[in-house]
Amino acid sequence: MADPVLVDPFMSNIWAHLEANNSPAGPLEQRQAWKIPLPGQDTENLMFKSQGMPDNPAEARESTSSAGGGSSPEAERAQNQRDRQDRLERYGPGAWSVAELLSCILGPGGSVAPGIVAERLLEGYGDLGEMASTAPALLARRSGLEPARCQRLLAAFELGLRAQEPVARQGLVVRRPEDLHPLLRKEFRGLDRERFLALYLDSRHRVQSMETVSIGSLNASLVHPREVFKPAVALSAAAVIVAHNHPSGNARPSGDDLDLTARLDRCGELLGVALLDHLVVGDTEVTSIREYGWPTGPDT
C-alpha cells in the first residue's frame, strides 16, 4: 500500500520515523494508535477531541440545558412558578408554604428577590402574628422591603383581619357580651400594652362609635372617667361599654379593674349614660365584669 502524499514536512518526518520503527503493529497501525491524522481522515475519534461534543457551541449549551446540569436561575424560577401554579390549581392556596405566600404578596419591583425577602422576614420574626403586629415604621426598615412592598404586606394582613369580621363595627347590635368578642379580639390582637376602649351605643344598643380612651404600660392603663364620657355626651349615646386587654393573657379582672368599673358606673348614673359592662380580654377568654360580679363598694 502506497503512502499518501504528505504536504507538511514536519508530519513527513514523523511518519518516516514511525515506518522506521520495528514495532509489531507496523507503520499504519502505529499511526492509528497515536491518532495522527492522515490527509482526508475523519478526526471525530481523535484522543484530544471530547467524545460526543458537538461542533456548534449553541448545540452544546442546548444539550447541557436539556440534560438538567446547567439550568439558569431564570429557568429555575420559571419552573418553580409553574410548580406553584399547578399546586394552586389542584389544591388551592393552602398548598403553598408561608414563604411562598409572602413571596407572592411582596411581588417583583424591589432590589432584592421576593423569595429572599420572604425568608429574611420569617427568620426575623417568630411567626406571622408577630410580623402582623409590628409597627409599619419598624417593618419598613427590613432589608429589601421597599415602601410598595411594605404597603402590600400590611394590606394583606389587614384584609385577613377584615375577612374574619362577621359584621361591621358601626351598627353592630349588642344583646350580650359575646356579641363583642370577635370585634375585641381583633382590636387587641398582638398588643403588648394595655389599651382601653369605649363603645358608644344608641337607645337600641347599636354601636355608634368605638374610641381608644388610653394606652398604658405593660400592666396598667390610666383612665379618667372624663375621657370615657366626653364622647358619649357629644354623640348623645344612651349607653357605654368599656373594654381593655391584659397583655399577660389572663382575662381575670384585677382589683384596679373592679375599682375603675365602680367609678365609671357612678359617673354614668350622674350623666344619664348607663355603663352596661366592662370586658377584660385575654389571650383565649373574655371576661364580663357584669357577669363576674359587678362592684358595689365605695370608690377607692
How would you describe what is shown here?
- About 11% of the residues have low confidence.
- Helix 1 crosses helix 2 and helix 11 runs parallel beside helix 12.
- The protein contains 13 helices and 5 strands.
- The protein has a 5-stranded mixed sheet, with helices on both faces.
- The chain has 3 domains: 45 residues, no CATH class; 82 residues, DNA polymerase, domain 1 (Orthogonal Bundle); 117 residues, Cytidine Deaminase, domain 2 (3-Layer(aba) Sandwich).
- It is of the alpha+beta class and 300 residues long.
Can I get a quick summary?
With 300 residues, the chain is an alpha+beta fold. It has helices at residues 9-20, 26-33, 57-66, 73-91, 98-106, 114-124, 128-132, 136-139, 147-163, 181-188, 225-235, 255-271, 289-293, and strands at residues 195-201, 207-215, 239-245, 274-281, 286-288.
Defining key terms:
5 strands, 300 residues, alpha+beta, DNA polymerase, domain 1, 11% strand, 3 domains, 45% helix, Cytidine Deaminase, domain 2, 5-stranded mixed β-sheet, 13 helices
The CATH first-level class of the largest domain comes to: Alpha Beta
Residue stretches low in confidence (pLDDT < 50, at least 5 long) are 30-35, 43-68
In the residues, how many domains can be counted?
3
How far the N terminus sits from the C terminus, by CA atoms, comes to 126 Å
Beta-strand share of residues? 5-15%
CATH superfamily of the largest domain: Cytidine Deaminase, domain 2
Q: Sketch the topology as an H/E string, one letter per element.
A: HHHHHHHHHHEEHEHEEH
**Quaternary organisation of the protein chains:** single chain
**Could you give the count of β-strands?**
5
The CATH topology of the largest domain:
Cytidine Deaminase, domain 2
Task: Characterize the overall form.
Answer: elongated
Please give the order of strands in the largest beta sheet: 2-1-3-4-5
Overall mean pLDDT stands at 77
User: Helical amount among residues, as a percent range?
Assistant: 40-55%
Radius of gyration: 39 Å
Q: What class do helices, strands and sheet pairing give? A: alpha+beta
**CATH-derived architecture of the largest domain:** 3-Layer(aba) Sandwich
Q: Please describe the biggest sheet, giving its number of strands, its sense, and whether it closes into a barrel.
A: 5 strands, mixed
Counting H and I runs of at least 4 residues, what is the number of helices?
13
